[in-house]
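Much of what follows relies on a compact textual record of a protein's fold. Each token is a code from a learned vocabulary of local backbone shapes. The record below shows the convention in full.
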Amino acid sequence: MYIKKLFNCFLFILPFYLFSQETTDSLSKINNLNEVILVSKDPISEKFAVEKLEKLDIYLNPSSKGDPLNAINTIPSSTNTEEGVNISLRGSSADKSKIYLNNVPIINPVRNSQLSSLGNFSIFNTELINKMYIYSSNPPLTYGNSTGGIVEINTNSSLESNNIIISTALSNTGLMLNKKINTKSFFQLYGNYQFSDFFRLLNKKSTINLNDFHSGDIGGVLNIEVSKNINFTLYNYYINESFSSFDNILNYSGNSTASQKRFFSISNLDINFNKSKLKFSFLYDISDKKYNFSQNNIFNIINSNSKNNNIYASVFHKLIIDKKLNIQYGLDVNIFKTSFSNNKNIYYNDLSEDTNRLNSYETYFFTEYKPSKRFIISGGLRQNLLNNYLSYQISNVYNFNSKNKLIIGMGTYNSYYLPNNNQSYLLNKSNHIAADYFLKKRKFSLTSSIYLKKDKGLLNNDIYNSINFSEIRTFGFETSFNYIYNKYFSLYISNMFLNQKGFADNQKFNTSYNLKYFIKSNILYSNPKLFSSSISITTRPGNYYTPVNNYIEQDNNIKPIFGTLFSKKYKNYLSLDFSLNKAFTLKNINLITFFSVNNLLNKNNEKNIYYNSNFSNTYYNMYQKRIFYFGIQYRISRL
């Protein structure tokens, strides 16, 4: 049956492809160059509400710590309140949004991952990144399996020069080789080793609960121009990491240890024609994760082992029919297998060994029509061939002039909840509607957005008491302002209002993302002759949480009785971050020194609550206290 469906899908795609080649052969050669340029671009990103970040944006952001996913946390639509790199966009939890690297999905792309999947850094190397697009809601259906947003990351398509980069920092050493094979082909190889010894020594008072972390990773990108119109890219990556800390979870305290070994390989083949493009993508991703939370290193409170295997393959064809109309259609195949060997004690669910497999075959069609210079209409359909669900969307762009535009989009999206410490693949569904306004002038830019979302499925998986909402409704408004005072100074400020309610057992509750404000601001001074420095401030209300009101004794254990869902709130959050860097040039060596301080005011920001053994007293785990970090990077050119 599956083969028949795939064959029918192939028959659906084939006529479009043959038509495109016949059309291409009959085209005038005068427009060939412009058409190749157009089809090599990504026109979809320009027709949706999207935030674009480039390499320099990441490095100049004091809150990013040089990490691409950390940089996303500073955009106005980010609702990440955990100081980690997992992506939360417009009130959707991290598992609802997807990250695509070179057109393939990368699941859980974090280092030092803990039980909650929070991580301190991503597995992406900023030096490899060309551009990064963030679709906060209504993401284009050329990408699937997302009911939140999409982050699209593209690696470098060219290399400016040959060089070696040597980096040394408080907790990291790294080496990278960038080398041209010829004018159009190149490779990039890198390796890093992370360690906690000096980091803990310098930040001793702020890292009391941190025991140790170590990681080693290696990666490489090979970009080959096979011919004038054919390009092949291969990206391989491997990491081996471990992490240990002292944690407090409800009424238990003990050591948490986590480790992961992971390898993935991504390959892409691009074939460009005069007015069309054919792209093949493939991913093989395997990982082995272990997590343990124990008391006195003897009594296991949580013990979890999981092995993931992910195979993903896709093909799409993009066609420019004329100046007003273009289409894209494709097929995605995703085979995901998770094997668990879990043993959760106390009041957690006990899980035995199990293996789950998810097979997903989806085809999609996307079109864009430009009836006038100012107005653009686009729409998409994505059909799952096995479970027979349909996602659909429409987006309208109106350009008032070259400086401001309005985008109104709506759609229905479907995605699977991929198991992390949950053993089920569950289907989620979300309805989006949003209006985004953009104004850009020479010295300042302004964005404003208003949106509604309604989600159904597994909407909140609380590891403490398995809270599940049947529905979550979100209303949000966000705005941002960027002003360039002169060639050295610039100011950025954004704010968000998010009203989010969860529904369970015919009752309405707050959620942890119910935020009356979420202010992010940044002042940047950049003078190449002197130095670059920036100060950023982030403030918001504390998150809502579910308190423990009482307890019962059962099977010689004390088990909590929880109160009303998300009825209590932590204190307001405030963080002030500072960064400073200076560049030097010595013949063929470029030298960059950098220094940063996070939570400069050393404020106690409440992260989560914990209790003594019988829940009679309450205490709080805190977010990161004041952290100092510094390093140096050597870039040796003319190899």
The radius of gyration is 25 Å. Residues 2-25 form the longest helix (24 residues). The first strand starts at residue 51 and ends at 54.
